[in-house]
Automatic annotation (TrEMBL):
Signal peptide: none annotated. Belongs to the adenylate kinase family. The lineage of its organism: Eukaryota, Viridiplantae, Streptophyta, Embryophyta, Tracheophyta. This is adenylate kinase. Keywords: Kinase, Nucleotide-binding, Transferase.
Amino acid sequence: MERRLLSRNQVEGREDDNIETIRKRFKVFLESSLPVINYYDAKGKVRKIDAARPIEEVFESVKGIFAPKNEKVILVFALVLSSHILMLNEEDFHLREPNQRKELLWEWTAVAAFDEDEE
């Protein structure tokens, strides 16, 4: 994975993809993001999607996990090797243009957390 991210620097000109930054982001992910995912996973409320596939396939997989509109759905996108967590509800996600949705899913591991207890 480190090699892939380092090569992204050469292809995309991403100066922040150096070995030190990559390792720091991974450490932050393990300490900050992963516990949130594990919390919902322990409650049986996690749906995992392989985001290493083409964007279109990932997008279709994410669309497939959404429940009927009458159920509360929260999507948590945890960027691999990052400390950032982006939370969107279903309506926010669907308000985006299709190309924006696909870009949003690039290199993201998607976790859908369904919480019937909250109003």
